[in-house]
Amino acid sequence: MTLLADAALLVVGLALLLAGGEFMVRGAAALARQLGVPPLVVGLTVVAFGTSAPELAVNLTAAARGNGAVAFGNLIGSNLANIGLILASAALLRTLAIQSIIVTREMPMMIVASVATLVMGFDALRGQVDSHYDRAEGLLLLLLFAIFVYYTVSETLRKRSSDPFVEQVREHWIGARLWSLGPSIGVVVLGLAGLALGGQLTVAGAVEVAAALGAPKGLIGLTVVAVGTSLPELSASVMAARKGETDLAVGNVVGSNIFNLLFVLGVTATVGEVPVPPDGQPDLIVMLAFSSIVLLLSLGRREITRAEGALLLIGYLGYITWRVA
Prior knowledge:
Helix content is 80%, strand content 2%. It has 325 residues and is mainly alpha-helical. Helix 4 crosses helix 9 (181-213) and helix 6 runs antiparallel to helix 7 (135-158). It is globular. The relative contact order is 0.24.
């Protein structure tokens, strides 16, 4: 295949991933409501999982095919893009005012997840030759994810009237649409099929593009694939910022980063080892740095200004340019 055909395969795969994720979220949300699941729980679990569904589909496919470098690059690149591209773009549209619950609950968990991922990714410091995420580390990440979900859901159900972030998530995503049981299941199945096929085409396209360009697979995952799978977060955060729902714009990014590191990486590492490429450890350090910067910016004035958004965007583009070069 030519480079153009490989790139087209990658684009088609990403399009199927995005469409599949959207169908799955809408169908799963309607199905959960049919089964009597509280709307707040739907907003915190089904919807939040849906935004990370493209990353999960790509990573599981890459792990199954032995292309762990694509899985690593996609995951860490998505988290970098969430902050340096998506959150920064939302801040450029409008200063992002952040309510305290995101700063005290979601952001610290994002830092914990980033630190855990960083430590697990430096096996060389523990005397091992190659760094990778194995099944034991995957299960540990999933345990942290379960603790986070339990704490968030229980606190939300206990104080639902005082959690404006969760109310915004529920209103923005769930809406008034309520399908019957049959159509809800059909939409979920259609979404899962789109995710499965999209994951196959995306990984195949990424591997072929990397081979055609003579570039590392992890680099294609870190850039093209990562940005492509992060498009749902970009759309949701920019729309939320334009509507003035700044908590949703920030919470969408922070929640996606938590899901990516604890759930997506946890599941992928449990299925098969995820190697850290030789040039992947700086990506882990920069990811933690970006997460820490967002927390520090939010601690004082509880906002991220347009100037700070511009600096985040410049930092992200500068790092990606350096990695490509």
